[in-house]
Design brief:
Blueprint lengths: L12 E5 L2 E4 L4 E6 L2 E7 L5 E3 L1 H14 L13
Antiparallel strand pairs: 1-2, 2-3, 3-4, 4-5
Length: 78
């Protein structure tokens, strides 16, 4: 299974836990719960900061432009 990062479109994304993924290029963590995706930036000290405010609005705009699309559609499985 190959995933594509919602932030940088890299395919260098690995699974780090159940429904948790990490992009090795831009160092963001993505967690998928049902039809909701949470996006976090991993800080140098190992803590995470939510980036949902940046990606939720973008996903909602994309979904409104393409009704019936998946808001988490940028994470693709190939």
């Amino acid at each position: 299974m190959m995933l594509k990062c919602i932030n940088c479109s890299s395919i260098d994304v690995g699974k780090i836990g159940p429904k948790q993924y990490f992009c090795w290029d831009c160092c963001i963590e993505m967690t998928i719960t049902g039809d909701k995706m949470d996006v976090y930036q991993v800080e140098p000290d190992g803590t995470v900061s939510s980036l949902n405010d940046l990606f939720v609005d973008e996903a909602l705009v994309a979904a409104s432009e393409h009704p019936g699309s998946d808001p988490a559609g940028d994470i693709t499985v190939a």
